Amino acid sequence: MSHPNTSGLHGMNPPQREAVKYMDGPCLVLAGAGSGKTRVITQKIAHLIEDHGYKASNIAAVTFTNKAAAEMQERIAKLLKEPKEAKHLTVCTFHSLGVQILRREARELGLKDRFSIMDSDDCFSLVQDLACTTDKQLIRRIQTDISLWKNGLVDPEAALKQAKNEHEDQAARIYRSYVATLSSYQAVDFDDLIRLPVELFRGNEEVRDRWQRKLRYLLVDEYQDTNTCQYELVKLLVTGLGKKPMFTAVGDDDQAIYAWRGATIENLKQLQVDFPDLKVIKLEQNYRSSTRILQAANAVIGNNPKLFEKQLWSEHGLGDPIKVMAMQDDEQEAEQVAIMISAHKFERRAKFSDYAILYRGNHQSRVIETALRKERIPYTISGGQSFFDRAEIKDIVSYLRLVANEDDDPAFIRAVTTPKRGVGQSTLEALGAFAGQWQCSLFEAAFKGGIESKLNDRQLGPLREFCHFINGLEARASQRGENAAELLDEMMKEIAYESYLYTTFDEKQAQSKWQNVLDFTTWLKEKGTGGKDGTAEEKSLLELTQMVALMTMLEGRDEEPDAVRMSTLHASKGLEFPHVFLVGVEEGILPHKGDPDAPVETLAARIEEERRLMYVGITRAQRSLHVSWCKKRKRARESVNCDMSRFIKEMKLDEGDAVPKEEEVLTPQARLANLKALLQKPKAA
Ligand code: ATP
Ligand code: MG
């Protein structure tokens, strides 16, 4: 039998093989969607291990999502003689790589070992407090500014100097306090996960050298979406005195869709400048999609100016016509998509997991979810707001996280301030500074000798009362004898969360939020009693809490093995599905309407980015593609008229592809009714 790795190389085309085998220096694979870039990375890792004697622990591959990383690791395992070796690889996102570096080097940066990571909600509240405003849009704008500065490696002082108007000046000042506050909390935000390692490596040759010796070969997927800071990290990891830079990056300039988060295509060009002997390899054969889908994708992206010339082709044949559907409104669209999936699945004998519904913005998911539920179609959502991301759930979870680990500072900050209990910003700042000085958590700081000189009785009172409350819960929660459900109910009553909701939000919002909380606690109680079937062991509240804490760190749950994937276009990057429904393809949605006051050149740049997003969507499809748009759409309770997106025209569909005919829209319903009737017959007999 031939060796699995070599046989893998046989299944690759000549330029792919060249990219896998190239070991003379840095290598960039620049190619369109579905041309096997990600496959080159997995094969190359196997090649490094099997044919060049690399240890798995000396190889790092950076992907865009944790899910992609897990999949990649699995694939590599299958290519190795010793599949178990794969678990020694570092395959992760830039952010997880950053966490790994920070965990090891926290002390070098003056952080305590158990520093906390604040998520974007935690940071939102912080900016809100620092800016003394409740204007959500303004807070988000400042948050974005801070993030762009951090990713562009601009420190607060430089940001202040650069500020060109009042807003920028205000944002830069808040940026300065924001950095100071985070450091007093002994916490980092997501951007710091990459920025801090960069700063560390820049300033500390020894540490950098240690990491260079550990990560001897670096591979980067989706290179087009790296930002300045991430690129800097790559450079710092691969360049050293008298050392040959060893890395392979793969990317597609036509799929760059994260400019709004600071990613810059310039990094693709910069790579050639910084590494003059960079080997550039292009791939042109697409292995994913049928020809019609590729032609449409090529036609759309052909309207963008080109950085690098490339034209995709495929051997998969013409394939199904692309269907464009005009719908009356978004509800009808969702309903039709659900019905068509049912019918299509039945006709093709496909699985639910063969289908993806892709959309531009998270807000579009709700009507689709409703329609899928109505049709009893199982689904999973990626890239959207998962249940665990809702503010009210996070509030409750923060209490549970704190019961599980009292040193969890972001959870502490959230719980102690929601609902308000007389612990304000200045108290927390003093507590944070004190905790930083003593290298301890906020919780511990509240009881540490010397804190009395920083906080007066009026400030300490409510703080300590809160800590005692958590301690009491913790003591009881760790005992198996205590009924988790009862304890949870008691906790909810004690913190008076329901009345907090009703005094903070309008009645309708409060009602829906409280319902979410009840759904969550019911779900938790079910898990505690060993699941619905009662087969698992009964759990204490502490065990439940740890389970929840772990779950909230994942990118959503994949509980349903056979389910339709609902996803934003951004989160669909790198994935492929036999059948894709691209919905809401209207002017104002895709392309997104954006900021009307933006200057013209950024408007043009924005349309180009939206076009790349459309290109990403089309190229996810392997065999069939349905594109739909709505004539009307509800926006804030109002129904507004919509126009078909220019991108549909740009697909240049010919006669073989369906034209938007209204009467056709109803046929799937009839088709499904027929199918259902057929299905029911044998049952009756
Ligand atoms: P994207 O730009 O969307 O990330 P990609 O360039 O990373 O796409 P892959 O996901 O690696 O493309 O490959 C697309 C599909 O083509 C996968 O199903 C992969 O297994 C298959 N494929 C890649 N190369 C070959 C090949 N030489 N022979 C057969 N199938 C291939
Ligand atoms: Mg890929």
TrEMBL record:
GO terms for molecular function: 3'-5' DNA helicase activity; ATP binding; hydrolase activity; single-stranded DNA binding. GO terms for biological process: DNA replication; recombinational repair. Pfam families: UvrD-helicase (PF00580), UvrD_C (PF13361). GO terms for cellular component: cytosol. The keyword ATP-binding applies. It is an enzyme of class 5 (isomerase). InterPro entries: DExx_box_DNA_helicase_dom_sf, DNA_helicase_UvrD-like_C, DNA_helicase_UvrD/REP, Helicase_Rep, P-loop_NTPase, UvrD-like_ATP-bd. Rep helicase is a single-stranded DNA-dependent ATPase involved in DNA replication; it can initiate unwinding at a nick in the DNA. It binds to the single-stranded DNA and acts in a progressive fashion along the DNA in the 3' to 5' direction. Belongs to the helicase family. UvrD subfamily. PANTHER family: ATP-DEPENDENT DNA HELICASE REP, UVRD / RECB / PCRA DNA HELICASE FAMILY MEMBER. This is ATP-dependent DNA helicase Rep. It comes from Noviherbaspirillum galbum.
